[in-house]
Amino acid sequence: MSAPGSTSFPTRPRKVRTLFLSDIHLGFRHARVRELNDFLQGMDAERIVLVGDIVDALSLARRAYWTAEHTQVVRSLLARQRSGRRLVYIPGNHDASLAVLAQMLQGQFEVHREWVHRTARGERLLVIHGDQLDDGMSCPRWLTRLGDALHGATVMVSHQVNNLRRTFGRPYWPLAEHVKLSIRTSVRYIEQFEQLAAQHARAQGYDGVVCGHIHRPNLRRIGETLYGNTGDWVESCSALIETQKGELALLRWPHREGEIALSPTTAVADAA
Questions:
Q1: Which pLDDT belongs to residue 231?
Q2: pLDDT of residue 115
Q3: Phi-psi category of 93—alpha, beta or left, where left has phi over 0 and alpha has psi -120 to 50?
Q4: Phi, psi at residue 106, to the nearest 5°?
Q5: How buried is 223 (Cβ within 10 angstroms: 0-12 exposed, 13-18 middle, 19+ buried)?
Q6: Please, what is the end-to-end C-alpha distance for the chain in angstroms?
Q7: What distances in angstroms separate CA 128 from CA 91, 174, 198, 223, one per listed residue?
Q8: How confident is the model over 100-108, as a mean pLDDT?
Q9: Neighbour order of strands in the sheet with 115-118
């Protein structure tokens, strides 16, 4: 019998070629680690690419917070590595200092600032966290601070609401994401980031880019460049996968039947 609020998976986990995860923020009080642990139980990936902000060293420095469920995420990932799966880690702005990771992971992950992923179809995708693009974003400092304050309050409320929903067996609801997408300034910022990421990859001759950072899952083509954002496990509870055929798909927990897929010849305007 499943625990309240959990989602049962088939006996056999879903086999995929690559799993992209980012912005888990282990060590942050409002990280949705229960949902992530449930999600990982249903995935069997040949390689796992961690696209930054897996550990929230900034939150840990301000206020230490770590539960057995946070540890279980790390154990689950390390178990995949011991079973022969490849694990690649691209640090983000919250885990750029590898002191915490070095102690916890003991060098068991491949660590790269940027990484190039070649799909089963032969496409070359630049994998970055996305904080490299911050300097190219135009946003007044006062507006950034205001946005951070509103975002923090919204995430806190969303976390409480979803804890209550889980208690009553209701599925996860991305309240914080819905609020963010209802604010025009936030939407413009996201669109600017997506354009900049695609331009960054295209200028270096890649077929596409996979990133995280802005906590906005999406999978689409910008011109002829593939743009994939894994989303996060604080607001959206989402991930990107590459199927055995080399197609990318965006998964949201727990509505796996509603996934968005993207092949080299398919155009997807938005994966909201």
A1: 96
A2: 95
A3: alpha
A4: 50, 40
A5: exposed
A6: 32
A7: 9, 24, 11, 20
A8: 56
A9: 115-118, 124-127, 208-211, 225-229, 218-222
